[in-house]
Amino acid sequence: MDGGFIYMSIQGDANSIKQKLQEDNNIKVKVALFGQPGAGKSSLINNIIGKKVAKAGVETDCTTVEQAYEHGGIILVDLPGYGTGKFPLDSFLEKYSPSNYDLFLCISESKFHEDDTELFRMINNNDKTCIFVRSKSDNIYDDDKSISQLKSEITADLVNQVGACDMIFISNRTKDGIDELESTIYSKLDPAKQERWAKYAKAYTEEFLNKKFEACQSTIICYAGLAAANGINPVPGLNIAVDIGIILKMFNDIKDSYGLDREKDYYARLLPMAGEILNNVFKVSVGAAATDAVIALLKKNASKEVIREIAAFIPLVGSAVAASIGFGICWYAGDYYNDNCRQLAKLVMEKELAQK
Questions:
Q1: Is 320:9 a contact under the CB 8 Å cutoff?
Q2: What is the mean pLDDT of the chain?
Q3: 109-145: per-residue pLDDT in tens?
Q4: Same domain for 212 and 178?
Q5: Range of the domain at 41
Q6: Are 251 and 106 contained in the same domain?
Q7: Cα–Cα distance between 143 and 345 in angstroms, integer?
Q8: What are the counts of helices (DSSP H) followed by strands (DSSP E) for the chain?
Q9: 8 belongs to a structural domain
């Protein structure tokens, strides 16, 4: 095969990769939250995203317009109150059409109201999923009954109102049940949107962290192929040409998906024994020395002989790119970085859960 044909083949593969990345970036998961005032919708939004983006407090909910919060393609929408003179229930769905959302969460801190269940029926009639979320579950208590009994009675009461449905108990304060809710939402989405949800929703279990890891692996394949195909200058000390800027972007994309967006010093204080992992995560993603750190990481992975055998397992990027030494080195670097981010995120998760 002559050099000109290889070049054309790689450029064709690069165009396909660019299109795949663009398609992935355009994927959105849109979840609407509705319920009675003070039920904890804002706190739940913050817990799912993993940072305080919505104002939350004990005061009466004064949401009067749709409020959307986006993070990495996940859009959580706090819908205004309904069943009032300003927002009568019979016209609520005309303004906020179920077709605009992937699924709905009905949030309540006590007994679900008639308006809640009626809105559920309307959503259900439009073939959309609605999950009932009983918030402030840490306040459920009765001297004469166990928590399990009380939850069973609450669930049975809801089933009597609406029929078979998904019911999740959560506490925004202790974070109990958030993991179950996120997994339930994941199960209701189509595969492409499952990957988006896994990549950017905050992980509360090791199982969900592993889903996040797998979602990032798909991203690494695209970035590595693009970095190799778009090679601008040879990496010093290596007989390859890759786009270092794309690799840096890949590393930051991976780091952001794990929610590792605070300063390194914060994690050093939280996890004083995680020095090596911290260095591996942060030295290649921030600061003036980032490019040198990436080059050092690429050199470290350049000796792997199995690189050229990857093509058979990665058809997405095309054989010309996948078989290149540049692709293999970038892929291994991305895999190494992804694993370090997962390790750090797991340590942070365990520390945070131990402190709740």
A1: yes
A2: 80
A3: 877 777 777 778 778 777 888 899 999 888 888 888 8
A4: no
A5: 28-198
A6: no
A7: 39
A8: 14, 8
A9: no
The reply to whether 139 and 269 lie within a common domain is no
Left, alpha or beta for 126 (phi > 0: left; psi -120 to 50: alpha)? alpha
Residue 356 burial by Cβ neighbours in a 10 Å radius (0-12, 13-18, 19+): exposed
Residue 216 to residue 197: CA distance in whole angstroms? 12
Q: DSSP per residue over 139-162, as a string?
A: G--BTTB-HHHHHHHHHHHHHHHH
Asked if residues 102 and 29 have their Cβ atoms less than 8 Å apart, the reply is: yes
Assess if residue 288 is contained within a domain: yes
Does the residue 33 lie in any domain? yes
| Alpha-carbon radius of gyration of the chain | 24
Integer CA distances (angstroms), 220 to 29, 197, 215, 298, 356, in order: 21, 17, 9, 14, 34
Structure tokens at 291: 């490019």
Say whether 106 sits in a helix, a strand or coil.
strand
pTM comes to 0.83
Residues 218, 223: Cα–Cα separation, whole Å: 9
Asked if 200 contacts 74 with a C-beta cutoff of 8 angstroms, the reply is yes
